[in-house]
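Action item from last meeting closed. Structure (124 res):
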């Protein structure tokens, strides 16, 4: 199966296949008619590789939730996906948080109660 043109038109093809369409928490999503919505990386993987085995989810090996490159996606159990640090936009190295741009140990709780990277916040 090949990808519909409406999907291809919203991808920037490089090492990662960056989704430029609608996103939710960084993950691309599309409407697939009466079937509802789908996460784009899952749709692309199933169209080009095959069905995702039951009980597994796709791990973005590149750590980029907008990436749809099937070579960057690996079906793994949820526990393995979380262990690898894909639970959110931050991961832990030892006991230190690492932001999505790779700054280690720079997280601070701000007045609104959210944690943000000091280095990224100061350049924003």
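Sequence:
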């Amino acid at each position: 199966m090949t990808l519909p043109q409406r999907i291809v038109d919203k991808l920037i093809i490089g090492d990662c296949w960056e989704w430029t369409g609608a996103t939710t928490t960084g993950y691309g999503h599309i409407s697939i008619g009466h079937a509802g919505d789908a996460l784009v990386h899952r749709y692309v993987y199933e169209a080009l590789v095959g069905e995702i085995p039951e009980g597994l989810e796709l791990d973005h090996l590149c750590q980029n939730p907008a990436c749809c490159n099937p070579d960057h996606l690996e079906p793994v159990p949820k526990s393995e996906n979380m262990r690898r640090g894909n639970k959110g936009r931050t991961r832990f190295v030892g006991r230190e948080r690492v932001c999505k741009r790779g700054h280690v140990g720079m997280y601070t709780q701000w007045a609104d109660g959210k944690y943000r990277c000091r280095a990224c916040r100061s350049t924003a």
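Note appended to the action item: Residues 1 and 47 are 6 Å apart (CA to CA).
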